[in-house]
Amino acid sequence: MDFEFSEEQIAIRDTIRELVQDKVAPRAAEIDERSEYPKDIEKLFADNGILGIPFPEQYGGISGSSVSICMGIEEIAKACATSSLILAVQALGAYPILVAGTEEQKKRLCPPLASGEKVAAYALSETGSGSDAAAMKTRAVRHGNEYVLNGTKQFISGGSIAGTLVVFAQTDPEAKQRGISAFVLERETSPWKSDKLEHKLGIRGFPTAQLVFEDLKVPVANRLGDEGSGFKLALAVLDRSRPGIGAQALGIAEGAFDYALNYVKERHQFGQPIASFQGIQFMLADIATQIEAARHLVYRAATKVDEKAPDLTKIAAMAKLFASDMAMKVTTDCVQLLGGYGYISDYPVERMMRDAKITQIYEGTNQIQRVVIARSLLR
Questions:
Q1: For residue 124, which of 94, 93, 99, 102 has the smallest C-alpha distance?
Q2: DSSP result, 283-306
Q3: What is the dihedral of CA 298, 303, 306, 307, to 10 degrees?
Q4: Catalytic: 57?
Q5: Were both Cys, which of 37, 81, 129, 305 would link to 135 (CB 3.0–4.6 Å)?
Q6: Contacts of 317 (CB under 8 A, 6+ apart)
């Protein structure tokens, strides 16, 4: 299956590719080394419409297509996984509003995100409920025209910098997963606390925050869907966002492979380029094949998001699982291809290997993806 990208999608990709080569790639090592959020890259993306890709035109965006989102994430991740998260998390935080929001909510909440005036985040995980998301403890109690939130969220990508935050909380704890509801918090009216930022193996420049809600008020007008519909929404969002993580993994692998391929052509040992050795050639062949297979699965999943296909859950899980496992193997092999140089931070492949690891973990560990796929097969 070959993918026919529209002229508009190719134009978006080419614009992003040029921006990445000119502005993002030269910053990637510094962003990682300093573990600082690249506000300049966020502004670059906002000014060039990249943060508007997740949104349809009627809400101030330029696309709304999952295929376009994945193309953007892939291009950015080739140079800098941290910077690719600026787009990926914007899409993740926007999906609940786009999937479950009323027309009024979409028209009110989406334009500031599409313009890049605000960035979004998505708060589901807690200290005691990662894979078991339904076991969350955060509570939302209704008082008249507002809810009062109390609780803590853990490992929230972009939670400390977001202006718009989608939070999942128990409105009826006795109903368990059927008692979970979703809310949109706007920082200016519902200011949450970011008490702790994590120090991480990879994606070091993108903040991963612990968020605390203490008697935090949010208007009833900012609840997404009915009370009790939040957990179903959370799963529907992950179906849509997982191809983006697959695209991020794909981009990381491609970036590492491009660097390693050039290196083995130029590195000489025993009087010849190491690319002339069959052991190296077999590694290159395997890497290229794995990347190509992952690309097809990622864009098949993205197409299914856009088509609202009934088998989306299974294919999205397959794309995330396969691409992230591939990225970890490929980046490890690329470090090996560079030998001792691959292990030092003067060369980008060790950063890419560290960045690849998280793609196997967030938005559902790969063990959870296998559970999702098996359930789909046996249903």
A1: 93
A2: HHHHHHHHHHHHHHHHHHHHHHHH
A3: -140
A4: no
A5: 129
A6: 242, 364, 369, 370, 372, 373, 376
Q: Count Cβ atoms within 10 A of the Cβ of residue 162 and give its class: 0-12 exposed, 13-18 middle, 19 or more buried.
A: buried
Confidence label for 1 from pLDDT (cuts 50, 70 and 90): very low
Side chain identity, residue 206: F
Q: Examine the pLDDT at 377 and tell me if it is beyond 60.
A: yes
Mean predicted confidence (pLDDT) in 267-296 = 98
Flag whether pLDDT at 3 surpasses 80.
no
- Packing angle between helix 312-337 and helix 349-359, nearest 10 degrees? 160
Tokens of 294: 């992952």
Torsion of CA 58, 61, 66, 72, to 10 degrees: 170
Structure tokens at 210: 């612990």
Query: Catalytic residue among 74, 75, 227, 363, which?
Result: 363
Asked if residue 350 lies in contact with residue 276, where contact means CB atoms within 8 angstroms, the answer is no
Give the tens place of pLDDT for each residue, 181-209: 999 999 999 999 998 999 999 999 999 99
Position 265 pLDDT exceeds 50: yes
Q: What is the pTM of this model?
A: 0.97
